[in-house]
Design brief:
This protein is elongated. The strands form four sheets. It has a five-stranded mixed beta sheet with strand order 3-2-1-4-8, covered by helices on one side. A five-stranded mixed beta sheet has the order 11-10-9-12-13, with no helix packed on it. The protein is α+β, with helices and mostly antiparallel strands. A hairpin with a 2-residue loop joins β16 (370-380) and β17 (383-392). The chain has helices at 44-48, 75-89, 115-127, 175-179, 210-216, 236-239, 244-257, 259-286, 296-307, 313-329, 356-365; strands at 4-9, 17-23, 28-35, 53-57, 63-68, 96-104, 107-114, 134-137, 149-154, 157-163, 166-170, 187-190, 201-204, 334-341, 346-353, 370-380, 383-392.
Length: 394
């Protein structure tokens, strides 16, 4: 059986779902239609039969990005890719599912989608008894030719593919404002009615059923989002189900044997969590202006590099370690900025407090380890702001 089933899921449970049964050998549409929403996906269970199911998802729910990887692409650099996108996407990397689309030299093409969005799509399919062979970005199933965009009107939107690994979904109202900003104006192969007056050079292609065009782009497409934890389970997982109860019983026995080890691991986890909380607390005390705390160690290294470079980090870390217990005793004294001179082994700290006595107490507490030179002091409202210059006595 050479026929395949192709469906396109929307962003919401009530979004219409176009579907198609297609025979690629004869380029023949066997059947097609539109479901009113995800709750009706079970109607395709019988229609799909034993045919492979390929699912398209809207690029409106995806983020296509290209990042530069220093050196060769290795397992370690692959693990670092999410952190390269963290600030740009404004999302916690733990909440993102990333898929590698391609690589040219040090340029790596990625697509990112929220884990919650992936779980929602897969839940819809599971509830309908459907097992997808692939989950593909709809725009990457459009034809691609060098130096020519592809455009397809579908479900009241415009689908564009503007690169080998990039594309976008555009509402009709945003079509002109988007295209007019692109220089030079793109050449666009349009697989539908050409919009009147739209910017760019539009070239009308022979009319074709929208889902048929996308179905043709499914075969051989490597942009499958079913990777990592979402990877399609092999057939053997179904065969082991009769042995599931036996495996559970064996697992219970194993848990009983390893109870002591589990308790020890739990204690270690608690200690690790407490240490992490302590590290977070120290970082927030030193850098209260940083509102977003993701990886304190990495962010501290960035601060250190900005302050004085890698060569001066060791001296600064030693000074901060000595100052931390003193600052903990003076919660009213809040560091605002730090400036470290590695050559002079000198730390300049701008701090604020409710009164001058907090500065005096700080100088007395660090007097054994540091020479403290006060600089400008000024009163601002109900706070006193001043700068202290510290040097190690050793």
């Amino acid at each position: 059986m050479s026929e395949i089933v192709v469906i396109r899921l929307g962003s919401q449970v009530r979004d219409p779902i176009p579907w198609l049964v297609w025979d690629p050998a004869g380029d023949e549409v066997i059947a097609s239609g539109v479901l009113p929403g995800a709750a009706h996906l079970n109607q395709l269970h019988q229609r799909a039969g034993g045919r492979p199911l390929h699912v398209l998802v809207s690029a409106a729910d995806l983020a296509f990005r290209q990042v530069t990887v220093p050196g060769r692409l290795t397992r370690q650099s692959l693990k670092a890719l999410p952190y390269l996108l963290e600030e740009e996407l404004g999302s916690d990397v733990e909440s993102l599912h990333l898929v590698l689309l391609g690589q040219q030299g040090q340029q790596v093409d990625l697509v990112a989608v929220e884990q919650g969005r992936m779980a929602m799509w897969l839940d819809w399919l599971e509830e309908a008894g459907l097992q997808p062979r692939s989950l593909l970005p709809d725009v990457l199933c459009l034809p691609w030719q060098a130096e020519r965009w592809s455009a397809l009107p579908l479900a009241g939107q415009w689908l564009f593919r503007n690169g080998p690994c990039t594309g976008m979904v555009v509402e009709p109202a945003w079509l002109d404002p988007l295209l007019v900003r692109i220089e030079p104006a793109p050449t666009i192969a349009c697989y539908g009615p050409v919009p009147e007056g739209a910017p760019g050079e539009w070239q009308a292609e022979p009319p074709v059923l929208a889902m048929q065009l996308l179905a043709a782009g499914v075969l051989g497409n490597s942009a499958n989002l079913l990777t990592g934890t979402h990877r399609r389970q092999p057939e053997w997982t179904r065969l082991w189900q009769p042995w599931r109860k036996v495996a559970i019983a064996a697992g219970v026995c194993l848990l009983a044997v390893l109870a002591n080890l589990g308790s020890e691991r739990w204690q270690l986890a608690q200690q690790e969590q407490a240490l992490k909380a302590q590290i977070d607390g120290v970082y927030r005390q030193l850098f209260p202006e940083d509102k977003r705390l993701i990886n304190p160690r990495s962010q501290l290294k960035q601060h250190l590099a900005v302050l004085e470079g890698v060569a001066g980090q060791q001296g600064l870390l030693q000074m901060l370690q000595q100052l931390h217990p003193v600052l903990a005793k003076l919660p009213d004294l809040r560091p605002q900025t730090l400036r470290y001179d590695g050559k002079q082994q000198e730390l300049r700290m701008q701090m604020s407090a409710a009164g001058y006595d907090s500065f005096d107490r700080f100088r007395s507490l660090v007097a054994d380890n540091f020479d403290v030179k006060p600089s400008e002091m000024r009163s601002e409202g109900n706070r006193v702001t001043g700068t202290l210059i510290l040097r190690n006595k050793s």
